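Troubleshooting log. The previous run stalled partway through. Resubmitting the same two chains, unchanged.
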Amino acid sequence: MQSPRLVIIGNGMAGARTVEEILARDGDFAVTMFGDEPYGNYNRIMLSNVLAGVEDESGIFLNDLSWYADNGITLHTGTRITRIDRAAKVVYAEDGSATPYDKLIIATGSRAFVPPIPGIHRPGRGYHQGVFAFRTLDDTRAMIRYAREHERAVVIGGGLLGLEAARGLQNHLSHVTLVHAMGHLMNTQLDAEAGATLQRSVEKLGIEVVVGAQTTEILGKHSVTGVKLADGRTIGCDVVVVAAGIRANADVAQASGLPVERGIVVDDQMRVQGEADIYAVGECAQHRGETYGLVAPLWDQAKVLADHITGRDPHAAYHGSRVATKLKVAGVDVASMGLKEPESDDDETLTYAEPRKGVYKSVIIRDGRLVGATLVGDVRKVAFLMQAFDRGLALPEERAELMFDLGGPPAEVSPAEMPGDAQVCNCNGVSKGAICSTVQSGCKTVSGVMDKTRAGKGCGTCKPLVQRIVEWAAGGEVEEDPAASWYVPGVPMPKPELMRAIREHGLKSVSAVFATLVPGGKEDAKSKMGLASLLKMMWGGEYEDERDARFINDRVHANIQRDGTFSVVPQMKGGVTTPAQLKRIAEVAEKHAVPMVKLTGGQRIDLLGVPKEKLPQIWADLDMPSGWAYGKSFRTVKTCVGSEFCRFGVGDSTALGIALEERYQGIEGPGKMKLAVTGCPRNCAEAYVKDLGVVAIDGGKWEIYVGGAAGAHVRKGDLLATVDSADEVITLTGRFLQYYRENANWLERTYAWVPRVGIERLRKVVVDDADGIAADLDAAMAASVAAYRDPWRERAEPATPGQFRTSLPLVLLPQVPVR
Amino acid sequence: MSTRLGSVHDIPLGEGRTYAVAGEMVAVFRLRDGSVRAVSAVCPHKGGPLADGQIDAEVVICPLHLTAFDLTTGCARGDLPPVKVYPVTVDADDMLVIPSEVLL
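Second attempt completed without errors. Output:
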């Protein structure tokens, strides 16, 4: 049977991207593409770099001709489609050819908007000599050629494109004036003050800027000699570049009777309104009244269209995009998202301006959510703001933190400013250059780059920076990692959906999850540990333990070290020990020649450098319970001496610490859980920077802080509650940990999870029981507590053959005889 | 000529174990589909014990820094040299067998 014929009109970023998405879904089509320009497809965003001379033409091509051949795509370049016959399902080209289709995609993009200024055209010749639009590669080439031989340019249009053109032209001629009809630059994205700030920065670069200037005439008889403004002024020049905006390219659609308003009207499947087999995507499409002139919405649209047309997900729907942009405009950092000005009296607006530095920031907040932000000159907070804007995150109480880093993590550097050899990942020694070259070799997802370079795979603190560099290196072409929202990389579901499916199907082992929930039943090594933890949390004693689903630490109940040996940490509840216990530990260390005995940060004694095969013997000799210094689980409760001996202590922190550790020892979670109880606000046990920290305050009360960290990230915890008794602390601790266990992403520590959910929300659930689930949380935690078994008891009877056999030649192994 | 490493049942399903064979350390894995794979036991990155890594049908992940290696080709998923791959089979007595010539 013949594959259905798919015809795409337009070979630009939208058309080619859509075809890529269709191919990625194994869409079975005979594909024909028509491109107006005589090239394969290229990254139009990069044209300003070509103009500025920082990029070669060859560097901006996305797919060369071999891509079309390799994928069996018939490409007609330099061929303009003039008419669609919807009834006969045929498209007609300028050259007279007729091409039948079963499905048609219109991706004609947009064209430069050229205002009807007298003198801009010459009858029968197109643009006047010296006048250029800035839209295509040919435009750019012609502009460069012409500009080189001339001296003065006027750019009409002070939007993004105009600014880029002006900056680029500076490389080719000595004087550039930017003429903008509106009162301030980039008026679509920026408010007046931001626009004025940008203007000052641009002027510092040597570009003359005239705002509020309507161009009324292009002067010159044989070629351009200047432009005339409405106020009578004339500006002499020999090059005019028109960058006054873009308009959807919908002529073909209109001529063929399709519905066209500002663009071709499409529904949520990107299908042209009223048509069964015609789609439109990209800048030429109008969805729910909006047309988009940016790349990100185009990707969203291409995915939906591909899902729908290939039948992969017939109900895929595009719901519009929230537009956020971050750009370097003519050398100045600019970011904008959402509203540029407040819309109602209730909107909260914060503004910061430092005109001499060229810095302007404003954010607009409605009902505690970010609805708009503008940054000029300093975009260090843009990553956070974009996330908050996209996902509707809870905002910091201290609103100034939206604009500045207040004693928090070090300021963000902009990728553009970093030298190529700057080390980005300090754990694995990965440079900015290594990340960029990985992106240039075609790897355009953040997770892909992390896999290839190992950047961000150590402590993880550099991940946001890695992401920014990938975004920057990909020039706005960064691909969204579909797995970003999944709980584990190998099962295509976010956590709530995954938990629902696990319950629905009664899946009690990791292999059952793969078999049931992954297409093709494919297992995934990187997902096993996260799934094992989740299943154990959900099913408790009913969980079917498969040892291969565990990380090595959890298979041998010790922490693997750099030489393949392990560290042994006996339990020492609340950091309290006895002479007898100390003596025993000392004897065992001596007997087994433990290379290093060390105190841990969590007030335990660590026996380091123990070979795997010695573990059972050491545990037996110690005859103490495991201190859980491994695993994504409840680790320790650090304490101070509190009221027992301390002159200042107001609460018995030691007793409470021991009680907490006794109850919650070894409980698994999405990340490790480190706790502390301190006897007074002097904080000797560092409770303010723990996943859960308890602080005794005067009057017999206890404060509970959550979401603190003093590791790779440093964060003071948020006050969850102040309670009157140790019992209440124990209950709320269990409830909080259970809610964390059920809701956090895999490997998401509380310092990330608590701010993501918001402390107010957590307080409502955990303390006020606003959702009515407190009893369930308590019961689930109680079940986990009841199912606890000390793993070091496995010493007597290994769980699997060779559980403790060495994996390295740490000791000489018997050689297997050769027959 | 070939070398018998021991019973396949010494390796739990989905795990790996290390064997010393003719002076080399070889990590042998028993996949969940019952088939076996063998690669050099030492991660070329920082010497991690690959037999302690987690596996699926395609890769083993070094437990030290989570580099993945293809169990069939030995290629690293990432910018590292490959690990050596050994042809390992299970004979009629359920014994793991590696042909001797590949060890030389």
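Takeaways: DSSP finds no helices and eleven strands in chain B. Chain B touches chain A through 51 residues (CB under 8 Å).
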